[in-house]
Specification:
The chain is α+β, with helices and mostly antiparallel strands. It contains 7 helices and 12 strands. The protein has 2 domains: 119 residues; 161 residues, Aminopeptidase, CATH 3.40.630.30. A hairpin with a 7-residue loop joins strand 8 and strand 9.
Length: 301
């Protein structure tokens, strides 16, 4: 059985240092300055995915972190780091590189405003991604006459796995298999994900596309309590390659917007997705607004 990201134990590293703040001068207490986890790619064992859980605004700290990871990973054959990513890389990747005044949605990687500067000095940018927002009250995007039915999330680890793989496909990461999908569903279960399956009228029992939605609760925890926030949701979706460019994606998006509107959500966010890719083009054509950019980095060890 192929080992997957979900059952490989990550390599973790955290750094502590004496504070430079004059207020604490003379103190012998060290404070945490960086924490990271790396998981190896099961299909490319020489590649690891870097999850930055915390690091302070200091070039030398990030340098020391990468050096420490290199010492621990090179004996195991890891020669390349890609990041920053979510702990489950398919759910989100890249450092936030614009629109820092907007709270990022759930499942996007930790990304303080100073992250791109320090990451760019020590790693090479390898991909740029866009995060899109869709107003749930916008006009329906149209689409084909398809048969829609409710998604049963537990089927995503079985017969619907190929559909999920279309939703979480990205050039820098392997498509999730059944074990990774179970990990994704465990992560999302507290938010009660739901969605739709799309099938052609002549074959209603053979789904060819899906939309997966769940509420975005990140704003509730990131904004001060005195501030209000708009209710938003997250959307993932895809159509099997042989059935694309037939309006099925637009039909699924229309159903997703209607369901989000019925739940009182003001918007849906999608991505980050590769800039100038098929999903990027599709979302722009359907009224999606690009609001935040992300950059993915790579470095050799």
């Amino acid at each position: 059985m192929r080992r997957t990201l979900s059952d490989l134990k990550p390599t973790c590293l955290w750094l502590e240092a004496l504070p430079r703040d004059p207020t604490f001068r003379g103190s012998s207490f060290e404070v945490p300055v960086a924490t990271a986890a790396v998981r190896r790619d099961p299909e490319r064992p020489d590649t690891g995915y870097l999850t930055l859980l915390h690091f302070v605004n200091d070039h030398d700290t990030l340098y020391a972190l990468l050096e420490g990871l290199s010492e621990r990973l090179r004996p195991h054959g890891v020669r390349t780091l890609v990041g920053p990513t979510h702990l489950l890389p398919q759910l989100g990747s890249g450092a936030l590189s614009s629109h820092w005044q907007l709270p990022p949605p759930a499942d996007t990687p930790y990304g303080p405003p100073y992250a791109p500067e320090h990451l760019g000095a020590l790693m090479s940018p390898t991909d740029t991604l866009n995060l899109f927002h869709l107003d749930t009250f916008q006009a329906a995007p149209g689409g084909a006459d398809v048969s829609l039915r409710a998604l049963e999330p537990q089927r995503l680890t079985g017969d619907l796995l190929p559909l999920l793989q279309t939703a979480f496909s990205a050039p820098d990461f392997p498509s999730p298999d059944a074990a990774e999908t179970r990990a994704i569903l465990r992560w999302l279960t507290p938010r009660r994900p739901f969605g739709f399956l799309a099938a052609l009228p002549g074959a209603p029992d053979t789904p060819v596309g899906l939309a997966l939605l769940y509420p975005d609760d990140a704003f509730r925890y990131r904004l001060p309590r005195r501030e209000t926030y708009n209710r938003t949701g997250r959307l993932w979706g895809g159509v099997l390659p042989a059935f694309r460019r037939q309006g099925i994606g637009r039909a699924l998006l229309g159903a997703a917007l209607a369901a989000a509107r019925a739940r009182g959500w003001d918007s849906l966010s999608v991505g980050p997705v590769p800039r100038n890719g098929d999903v990027d083009t599709f979302l722009q054509a359907c009224g999606g607004v690009w609001r935040q950019g992300y950059t993915l980095y790579r470095t050799g060890l």
